[in-house]
Amino acid sequence: DSGVTQTPKHLITATGQRVTLRCSPRSGDLSVYWYQQSLDQGLQFLIQYYNGEERAKGNILERFSAQQFPDLHSELNLSSLELGDSALYFCASSAGSDPYEQYFGPGTRLTVT
Amino acid sequence: ILNVEQSPQSLHVQEGDSTNFTCSFPSSNFYALHWYRWETAKSPEALFVMTLNGDEKKKGRISATLNTKEGYSYLYIKGSQPEDSATYLCALHGGSQGNLIFGKGTKLSVKP
User: Fold this and answer.
1) Residues 43..102 of A with a Cβ closer than 8 Å to B: which?
2) What sign for the dihedral angle of Cα A74, A79, A81, A85?
């Protein structure tokens, strides 16, 4: 158990809908990262927050947004969902941006039908 | 765009065999390299974070080396066991931003 929690574990929704994925980092970790794992793709970095502020952005679509709250939990919002958004979404946390280990949550499997 | 390549894509070995995989990355502006172990239906588990050229790290039967000048890292598993079956990922640390750029992984299957 990495100490990172993600809810829900599974999510099935229809195209055009909006969903929110939630992540609670390990106690004391200030950085939260979101990654997407699609079929045949490696883990792709989406976005990073550090202590409430956006720190880095990767290949995140404009339909997706995220935030980190004062208690350091983070939410990833996916809107106008398309079939291609079906993927495993991981949240990871680390103490900071330096080369600390990143600890991954169990992931949320999103299926868009 | 930074590209991280891993080879082979998959590997099938017998229990007791020793094995190794390669991770290649651009050698310029190197910051850090991470190795992760990812079992099916679980989340990636951190193995090593490597920062210095010539670094060698070990955890039990698993070890890794790093060559930042030529842009590669090797992961070795000595005496593979069935429980070593997993996908092994390497990831380049994206500098001060902290994000990881992952390779596609090497899938290891160890037959009893």
Assistant:
1) 43-45, 48, 50, 55-56, 58, 90, 94, 96-102
2) negative
Determine the Cα–Cα distance for residues A33 and B68; give it in Å rounded to an integer: 25
Distance CA B90, CA B71 (A): 12
CA-nearest of A72, A66, A89 to A27 is: A72
Query: Using CA atoms, how far apart are residues B12 and B19, in angstroms rounded to an integer?
Result: 10
Q: Which residues pair with A33 in a beta bridge?
A: A48, A92
Determine which of B47, B97, B101, B107 to mutate to test the interface with A (most A C-beta atoms within 10 Å). B97
Could you report the per-residue pLDDT of B67-112, keeping only the tens digit for each? 999 999 999 999 999 999 999 999 998 766 678 899 999 999 999 9
